[in-house]
């Protein structure tokens, strides 16, 4: 397979995806924004900061110069955090625009206005630019370890989704295609809010029953917002919805769940962020989801309470008590 791909973002997920593509036989370029960090990756042939223990395949090369991307190929997979997504695409455009095929693995909203990331892609490049999102239950370290994983590749352009699936698919990394870009985006972004909430409940000492209730009612919130934004209900029962929600709410590899655990155990937000020392996408997603819910009149009580803990100083215990005090009603 003489295929090429440039991965933008040398964190845990971009590094894992670059290693995956290289193992699949792709000539792979991994770009990171920090020259000193990328020099270490070049020197060490591994990412000791974000994905230690996984030596890079020989067909994976490192750069901190975006100009190298346009000379390398026109297929780009963006895996920077949501707060860096728009700026990274703006920088990319100065080097590559014509013929660009872009995918992204970022889970979140555009922090400027809560828009979905496919809208950022369309605004910066074009609505006709081949675009796809990669999302689903996938911890980077397990992908690097080649533990069986299944993810969704969502695009309104099926040929492009299939092209990307061909490049990334393997026995241990199963790719499923989906035409519901909005549903997959909302599922991947809002599951991080629910993971914080589930972590808070566990950190407070509540049990498995509580966690199951939060996951179930959290899925209900995600579906309500996702359908309102144009997603298909069935998408949220799939890998990018229920699958990723269960994974992130129940396993301590999740940064979002661990962040919630720390809050529930009494740490303040700053201390919890410092302790985790990696991206916690649910913090910004909690605000963006809360604002979207208000804008579209969608009842999202778990999201609202999580937002109030993170942005209004509500204590974790008071947040759970507020949820428990809600009036009895028919399940919907
Ligand atoms: N880590 C996982 O298991 C995993 C799995 C699936 C999806 N994701 C998603 O991947 C995205 C990237 O997160 P991650 O897990 O790799 O985070 P990370 O904390 O592991 O790494 C973050 C990376 O972003 C870089 N970065 C920070 N600010 C930047 C900027 N302004 N411009 C460019 N790069 C910048 C950092 O240098 C670092 O390399 C997130 O949206 C996350 O939800 C992560
Ligand atoms: O560590 P988290 O909570 O950002 O979760 C990582 C991935 O999104 C899991 O699918």
Automatic annotation (TrEMBL):
<dbReference type="Pfam" id="PF01210">
    <property type="entry name" value="NAD_Gly3P_dh_N"/>
</dbReference>
<keyword id="KW-0594">Phospholipid biosynthesis</keyword>
<feature type="binding site">
    <location>
        <position position="33"/>
    </location>
    <ligand>
        <name>NADPH</name>
    </ligand>
</feature>
<feature type="binding site">
    <location>
        <position position="12"/>
    </location>
    <ligand>
        <name>NADPH</name>
    </ligand>
</feature>
<keyword id="KW-0443">Lipid metabolism</keyword>
<feature type="binding site">
    <location>
        <position position="255"/>
    </location>
    <ligand>
        <name>sn-glycerol 3-phosphate</name>
    </ligand>
</feature>
<dbReference type="InterPro" id="IPR013328">
    <property type="entry name" value="6PGD_dom2"/>
</dbReference>
<feature type="binding site">
    <location>
        <position position="13"/>
    </location>
    <ligand>
        <name>NADPH</name>
    </ligand>
</feature>
<feature type="binding site">
    <location>
        <position position="50"/>
    </location>
    <ligand>
        <name>NADPH</name>
    </ligand>
</feature>
<feature type="binding site">
    <location>
        <position position="256"/>
    </location>
    <ligand>
        <name>sn-glycerol 3-phosphate</name>
    </ligand>
</feature>
<keyword id="KW-0521">NADP</keyword>
<keyword id="KW-0520">NAD</keyword>
<feature type="binding site">
    <location>
        <position position="255"/>
    </location>
    <ligand>
        <name>NADPH</name>
    </ligand>
</feature>
<comment type="similarity">
    <text>Belongs to the NAD-dependent glycerol-3-phosphate dehydrogenase family.</text>
</comment>
<feature type="binding site">
    <location>
        <position position="136"/>
    </location>
    <ligand>
        <name>sn-glycerol 3-phosphate</name>
    </ligand>
</feature>
<protein>
    <recommendedName>
        <fullName>Glycerol-3-phosphate dehydrogenase [NAD(P)+]</fullName>
        <ecNumber>1.1.1.94</ecNumber>
    </recommendedName>
</protein>
<dbReference type="InterPro" id="IPR006109">
    <property type="entry name" value="G3P_DH_NAD-dep_C"/>
</dbReference>
<feature type="binding site">
    <location>
        <position position="107"/>
    </location>
    <ligand>
        <name>NADPH</name>
    </ligand>
</feature>
<feature type="binding site">
    <location>
        <position position="107"/>
    </location>
    <ligand>
        <name>sn-glycerol 3-phosphate</name>
    </ligand>
</feature>
<feature type="binding site">
    <location>
        <position position="254"/>
    </location>
    <ligand>
        <name>sn-glycerol 3-phosphate</name>
    </ligand>
</feature>
<keyword id="KW-0560">Oxidoreductase</keyword>
<dbReference type="Pfam" id="PF07479">
    <property type="entry name" value="NAD_Gly3P_dh_C"/>
</dbReference>
<feature type="binding site">
    <location>
        <position position="138"/>
    </location>
    <ligand>
        <name>sn-glycerol 3-phosphate</name>
    </ligand>
</feature>
<feature type="binding site">
    <location>
        <position position="191"/>
    </location>
    <ligand>
        <name>sn-glycerol 3-phosphate</name>
    </ligand>
</feature>
<feature type="binding site">
    <location>
        <position position="244"/>
    </location>
    <ligand>
        <name>sn-glycerol 3-phosphate</name>
    </ligand>
</feature>
<keyword id="KW-1208">Phospholipid metabolism</keyword>
<dbReference type="InterPro" id="IPR006168">
    <property type="entry name" value="G3P_DH_NAD-dep"/>
</dbReference>
<dbReference type="InterPro" id="IPR011128">
    <property type="entry name" value="G3P_DH_NAD-dep_N"/>
</dbReference>
<dbReference type="GO" id="GO:0047952">
    <property type="term" value="F:glycerol-3-phosphate dehydrogenase [NAD(P)+] activity"/>
</dbReference>
<feature type="domain" description="Glycerol-3-phosphate dehydrogenase NAD-dependent C-terminal">
    <location>
        <begin position="180"/>
        <end position="320"/>
    </location>
</feature>
<keyword id="KW-0547">Nucleotide-binding</keyword>
<feature type="binding site">
    <location>
        <position position="281"/>
    </location>
    <ligand>
        <name>NADPH</name>
    </ligand>
</feature>
<keyword id="KW-0444">Lipid biosynthesis</keyword>
<keyword id="KW-0963">Cytoplasm</keyword>
<comment type="pathway">
    <text>Membrane lipid metabolism; glycerophospholipid metabolism.</text>
</comment>
<comment type="function">
    <text>Catalyzes the reduction of the glycolytic intermediate dihydroxyacetone phosphate (DHAP) to sn-glycerol 3-phosphate (G3P), the key precursor for phospholipid synthesis.</text>
</comment>
<feature type="binding site">
    <location>
        <position position="140"/>
    </location>
    <ligand>
        <name>NADPH</name>
    </ligand>
</feature>
<feature type="active site" description="Proton acceptor">
    <location>
        <position position="191"/>
    </location>
</feature>
<dbReference type="InterPro" id="IPR036291">
    <property type="entry name" value="NAD(P)-bd_dom_sf"/>
</dbReference>
<feature type="domain" description="Glycerol-3-phosphate dehydrogenase NAD-dependent N-terminal">
    <location>
        <begin position="4"/>
        <end position="160"/>
    </location>
</feature>
<dbReference type="InterPro" id="IPR008927">
    <property type="entry name" value="6-PGluconate_DH-like_C_sf"/>
</dbReference>
């Amino acid at each position: 397979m003489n295929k090429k791909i440039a991965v933008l973002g040398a964190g845990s997920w971009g590094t894992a995806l670059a290693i995956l593509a290289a193992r699949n036989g792709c000539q792979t370029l991994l770009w990171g924004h920090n020259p000193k960090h990328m020099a270490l990756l070049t020197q060490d042939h591994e990412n000791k900061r974000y994905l230690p223990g996984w030596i890079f395949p020989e067909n994976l090369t490192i750069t901190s110069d975006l100009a190298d991307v346009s000379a390398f190929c026109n297929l780009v997979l963006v895996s920077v955090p949501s707060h860096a997504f728009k700026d990274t695409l703006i920088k990319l455009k100065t080097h590559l625009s014509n013929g660009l095929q872009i995918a992204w693995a970022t889970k979140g909203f555009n922090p400027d206005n809560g828009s979905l990331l496919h809208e950022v892609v369309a605004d910066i490049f074009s609505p006709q630019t081949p675009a796809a999102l990669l999302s689903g239950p996938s911890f980077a370290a397990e992908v690097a370890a080649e533990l069986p994983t299944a993810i969704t590749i969502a695009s309104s352009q099926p040929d492009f989704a299939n092209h990307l699936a061909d490049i990334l698919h393997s026995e241990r990394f199963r790719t499923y295609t989906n035409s519901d870009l909005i549903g997959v985006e909302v599922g991947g972004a809002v599951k991080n809010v629910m993971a914080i909430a589930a972590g808070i409940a566990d950190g407070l000492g509540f049990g498995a029953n509580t966690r199951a209730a939060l996951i179930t009612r959290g899925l209900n919130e995600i579906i309500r917002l996702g359908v309102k934004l144009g997603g298909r209900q069935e998408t949220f029962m799939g890998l990018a919805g229920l699958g990723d929600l269960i994974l992130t709410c129940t396993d301590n590899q999740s940064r979002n769940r661990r962040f919630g655990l720390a809050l529930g155990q009494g740490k303040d937000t700053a201390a919890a962020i410092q302790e985790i020392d990696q991206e916690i996408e649910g913090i910004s997603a909690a605000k963006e989801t809360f604002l979207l819910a208000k804008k579209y009149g969608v009842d999202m009580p778990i999201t609202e309470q999580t937002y109030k803990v993170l942005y209004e100083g509500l204590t974790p215990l008071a947040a759970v008590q507020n949820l428990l005090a809600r009036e009895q009603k028919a399940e919907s």
